[in-house]
Amino acid sequence: MTSESIDIINAFALLTNFVILPALSYGSQLALGALAVTLVYSILRFSNFAQGDSMAFGTMLVILISGYMISRGWTITGVPTALLAIPMALIGMSIYLLTMDRLVYRHYRRIKAKQNIIGITASIGIMFVTGGIVRFVLGASAQRFGDGERFIFSVREFKAFTGLEQGIALKTSQFLTITIALLLVSFLFYFLQKTKTGKAMRAYSDNEELALLSGIDPDKVVQITWLLVALFTTIAGTLYGLDKGFAPQQYHLLLLPIFASVIVGGIGSPIGAIAGAFLVAFSEILLTYAYKKFLIYLLPLSMHPTSLVQLIGTEYKYAISFVILVIVLLIRPTGLFKGKVIVGE
Questions:
Q1: Residues near 102 by Cβ (< 8 Å), separated by ≥ 6?
Q2: By percentage, how much of the chain surpasses pLDDT 90?
Q3: Is residue 236 part of a domain?
Q4: Residue 311 domain-assigned?
Q5: Which of 77-86, 100-109, 283-292 shows the highest mean pLDDT?
């Protein structure tokens, strides 16, 4: 193999380690959060601005439960205890969301208020309440999940196996994120397309009045929707925490890329939410990555860059989501997959 070919492989390994794998992982986390927003918008007909802080709340429950399990020695070698804590956290998250619905959202559904506008206002209030609870319980400082294997294989192991100068590391959190996201997305599409309850939810989403005339129980549809939202929210938040650590403010800031994913893909479209999430994730990471080493492998010595060759600083990461969102709204207001137009609702 020629030195040029080896350089190309090294460049690809570098890009895989620092761009492709992180973007796939981050995109999967955004996709799960975006699907939760899509479910609420499609079925309950309002934009849930509490999504980011709800993910923090679910992750908080996982941290508390997993901490208790670790203190009792209820762990499995190599497996993050956070995964074992998710089922119990799901129960707590479901109770919290159903309680918020009963205390707040149900009243506006019954009086037939203009749901998207009222729902947005109410969800902003719940966003601050939820974020306040998380900060009160855990504080505002960052935390890390400490147990479980960190890597499936490390850079050092990859280099030793391949003999390359650059290595690829696959973190346990990345593998879990991508795998669980695939399973959850498959489950959601099967549930909505094949089950009686899922078909009832789709009917209620398409035409509420006709669905009620068909004998569909609206309260059951609402409850199932919040249970699904609890599932996606808790798992998305936990996977994000395992991958990047837990900080309440970071979850609050996730609201922008999540909503950008939903609107870019086409609001109300589950497929669009997934596509939008990966578009946002890859855009953020590709534009903030420093390409100096990558270009050194590909360019002749005389053209080697001396600067980092970073298109945008990492401090402007979330601005990328906003720019993508604005461009899509200007060019294609219905999103890439022709969702609902949000203006005027």
A1: none
A2: 62
A3: yes
A4: no
A5: 283-292
